[in-house]
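[step 3/7] fold_predict: job queued, chain A
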Amino acid sequence: MIGQGIIRSLRLAAPHTRIIGVDRSDDSPGPDWCDEFHKKPPVAESDPAYTTFWSDLLTTTNADIVFPGIDVDCWFLADHRAMLPQSARLVINSEPLNRLCRDKWAFYEAIQTLPVTAIPTFLASKTPPTAPEWQPPFVVKHRFGSGSRGMSIARSHEELAGTLGRIRREDFIVQPYIGTDDAEFTAAAFGLGDGSSGQPIVFRRRLSPAGNTAAAVVVTEPEIEAAIAELSRTFRPVGPTNYQFRKDGTAFRLLEINPRLSSSSSLRTLFGFNEVAMCLEFFIHGRPPAHGTIRQGRAWRYLADHVAYDRDPV
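[step 4/7] structure written:
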């Protein structure tokens, strides 16, 4: 979904751009939407052959810029930047923020001194707190995971104990389930690397079962904007940065930062906040990106059909 959004945003920002798609699978509409497509080799990111694949690809295609769409691609490109052709700009956030956000527990500890309210979190390997706010339901999630993968809900202390007994506890964190499913907020701001970010766009959203945005409405939330400004001053993000919040009564609690483009990027583009266009300005031309007028409204996602007909025999 993120890759599809990048393609659509690129087509709007620079219609004549040559788009080269890269994916593990070619069994999707993605290759049809690109001008050129390359399938990743069937090896792990840690295999030297995978680094060779990327180095050869960037050399032979003479790519100007690379937009990673998922965490593993961001992490790989960040870790192997020095081994890849320097002619291609990589849309990668700052190294410290990238590393910090890989570990939800390390990130939670890092923001404890900031005037930003976070969702209470404890390591699953520790004894659960007994404070009044630690009441079911609980969210158990992988501290190194992304999205909703590996996440489960425990609706009682007994369920929590059972869940903790089935996992490698040092790899998981536990949080109280804050707010409701229609009180999650996703925001994006473009970091300039100097502690400043442009005007953010904020969605109140409803999540799909897969954990991404199913419906969204553009909102103005000064508390979220102030939190993003504080986080930007502290962590100095570079490029597109996604901030997740949950509403707890009248307060907003920070859930996490995703230092990359997100699945909501295509929706933001339709409201006048084209992060891909901003990347072209910043990473290729070296200019602070201009922010257009953000339109108000709401959006829904739905399934659509894409057909690739067999070619007629020659």
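[step 5/7] annotate
The mean pLDDT is 91.
DSSP finds ten helices and 14 strands in the chain.
exit 0
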